[in-house]
Amino acid sequence: MAELLYRLGMWSARRPWAVIGAWAAILAVTAIGFLVGFRGLVSSFDIPGMPSSAVVEELEEALPEYAGASGAIVFRTEDGSPLTDAQREAISALAAGARDLPDVAQVVDPFAAEQQRADHAAQLDAGRAQIAQGRAQLDLQRAQLDAAPQQAAVDAARQQLDAARAELDAQSETLDRAARLLALSDPIRVVSEDGSTAVVNVAFTRPRLELAEASKQAVIDHVEAHPVDGVEVGMSTEIAQGVPQVIGVGEAAGLLIAAIVLGVLLRTLVGALIPLVTAVTGVAIGVLGSLSFSGLVQMALVTPVLGVMLGLAVGIDYSLFIINRHRRQLAAGADPHESIGLANGTSGNAVVFAGATVVVALLALTVTGIPFLGIMGGVGAVAVVAAVLIAVTLTPALLGLAGERVLGRRARAAAAAAVPVARPMSWSRAGLTVLGTVVALLIVAVPALSMRVGLPDGSSEPEGSYAQRAFEITEAEFGPGSNGPLLVTAALPDGLDDAGTVRAQLDVAEAIEGLGGVAAVAPVAVADDGGIAAFQVVPDGGPNSETTEQLVRALRSAPPVDDGIALGVAGQAAINIDISERLLEVLPLYLAVVVGLSLLIMIVVFRSLLVPLIATGGFILSLFATYGALVAVFQWGWGADLLGIHSTGPILNFLPIILIGILFGLAMDYQLFLASGMREAYVHGASAREAVSRGFRAGRAVVIAAGLIMVSVFGGFVFSESTIIRSLGFGLAAGILLDAFVVRMLLMPALMHLLGRSAWWLPRWLDRIVPDVDVEGAALERRHHAV
């Protein structure tokens, strides 16, 4: 591999315009593919085989009108006064017009719905009055019969009166049950008690995952085209969840900081520009190429963001490692083309293996069995592969064009000066470093013990957005549970008449209320064959509250009502809980697969057992410390104001798994670049402890710079408007900060010093099996002398 990369680097350096033209052509083809194949992104996440998915499938057969996606449009007067007649008429007209929009199945006029509720209550009162009147008449007739002489005709009349009374009693019992059901559902309102707020509910014909973004946008456009004077509007996340901005001010600032770090390290404008050009090119090719297939596979909104994050970070770093090696060789008097080839065969070889580790970690997301995670991992892997290929081809080509301008005069003079001999650290210092870093990481990891996971709700949407305003208004006017109602199904017995159906509905509703944590229960529909009844259940807490999670678990574990009516739970809150549980279930499997595969790669690379174990143990410490930092900021709210986070809640449910894949791969990058330098010194004759010191001194500057660049790039996404992107950027930035600067720069060298020669121990039988990949390029350097 090293020899192949050496020749590739030499060829690229001597034919730079051919390489640049080839990548420009690839970029053009990719852009055309994107324009032709891009079909949009989805804002929903789903996992096959969830309990809520089974309920949705059942509804699609029995009650299809309740199986589709649904959302809400919230109207509230700007001054908090009751809606005027003109405003009510305008809202009703808007609701009526929305019924003709694409994929819209039903739109509920809130004022008509409230009138129906009032009419239903009036009918119940009228029915009770009629029953009372009928009973009074029966009592009068019975008194008359009792006063009459005993005759056969009188006995027959009494029997008729008794039958009439029994029927009235049955009707009264049915009315009482209906009244009880109405009382249980009374808190569910679409017009607030003060009359200032109204909610228009929109039901779609297609399920959540199949609903096109264009259909949601049509609803938004319709609302914006018909403003109501004096009324503010909000729309739930099911309708108005925005597409996150991939590159914004924060991301641009991160790139600016990366450019400054490159300029300080390389002290030449040409050298600083090359990593930025290669990284941006790789991101464009990797992300646009992946999005070209969005018409064939569903991609989540965050998918391209992950590709951009990874592509920028590793693209800059991989190019920087090759440039840094080339500059050191140039400063020592090497021929430029020979130096480029040797840098590509040594540092480029390490780049290939580092990229392979990241790609393995990302592709391993497919073993989770969760489609959207596998696709995210695949897009990230494509971005990394593009970064690696560009690093080992386009970087040498640009270096060939730059010539000696990549190394300024001051840098040449400084590099040519005698380098002081590195002194190994003392035993006591190494021991204290190990103890201090481990204790510090464990302390930072403590908040992770209370981690809760979920999906962001409307409260975490950008402040002032449609979704955030809808969530806030709904919670204030109708209670927190109204933002995340549950849809509960009940399998009714066969052969029930109308009275029996009402009785079964009441039994189910009372059983649900008895579980606790329920604000309201309302029967919403019964299938035509009478086999399935659907209920809307409003929890006491919001979509991400612990009480709502407990209610979902209680509903699923509850025994059948009346010894035969089984319950099922769906709705957005239940779906989010299902996704979170499934992700937590696969987390240990994914961690084991990633660590196992990467351990094998590192054993081959370093020809050692203990170095891979040190690398993995350090990663686990930094990973849990990263989880702790995430919980402290995004769940507990520590320092949230400084980052502009206006709402705290559970950690994004797929973030722990994503962080394992990305951070493990990137952590092994830094491990590889530092430890390969140590091994290079060791195989060239230095003692084990001296090799640790030499390798650390040789690689620390570039690893510090690379770490700062990654933290800057990832940190720029912390200021995104999207909570998903914000938490992902923070997690990656915190993880790199902890792993690169605490684990790789402090803990790993100290442990290597304590282990001495045993760090490079490999059993003889394994030594004969493991191929010699020569990642540090020692054999290549013996064959080709750059200096």
Q: Descriptors for this entry?
A:
787 residues, four-stranded antiparallel sheet, 65% helix, 26 helices, single chain, alpha+beta, Multidrug efflux transporter AcrB transmembrane fold, elongated, 10 strands, 2 domains
SSE topology sketch:
Layout (H helix, E strand, L loop, with lengths): L1 H13 L1 H22 L13 H12 L7 E8 L7 H14 L5 E5 L1 H38 L4 H34 L11 E8 L8 H13 L5 E5 L1 H4 L8 H18 L2 H23 L11 H29 L4 H28 L7 H21 L2 H9 L6 H8 L10 H19 L7 E2 L11 H13 L7 E6 L6 H16 L4 E9 L5 E8 L6 H12 L9 E4 L1 H35 L3 H26 L15 E2 L2 H29 L4 H29 L6 H33 L8 H6 L8 H6 L4
Parallel strand pairs: 5-10
Antiparallel strand pairs: 1-3, 1-4, 2-3, 6-8, 6-9, 7-8
Helix pairs in contact: 1-12, 1-14, 2-10, 2-14, 5-6, 6-18, 9-10, 9-23, 10-11, 10-13, 10-14, 11-12, 11-13, 11-15, 11-23, 12-13, 12-20, 12-22, 16-21, 16-24, 20-21, 20-22, 21-22, 21-24, 22-23, 22-24, 23-24
Task: Kindly summarize this structure in a few lines.
It contains 26 helices and ten strands. The protein has helices spanning 2-14, 16-37, 51-62, 85-98, 110-147, 152-185, 213-225, 237-240, 249-266, 269-291, 303-331, 336-363, 371-391, 394-402, 409-416, 427-445, 466-478, 498-513, 546-557, 572-606, 610-635, 655-683, 688-716, 723-755, 764-769, 778-783; strands spanning 70-77, 104-108, 197-204, 231-235, 453-454, 486-491, 518-526, 532-539, 567-570, 651-652. It is elongated.
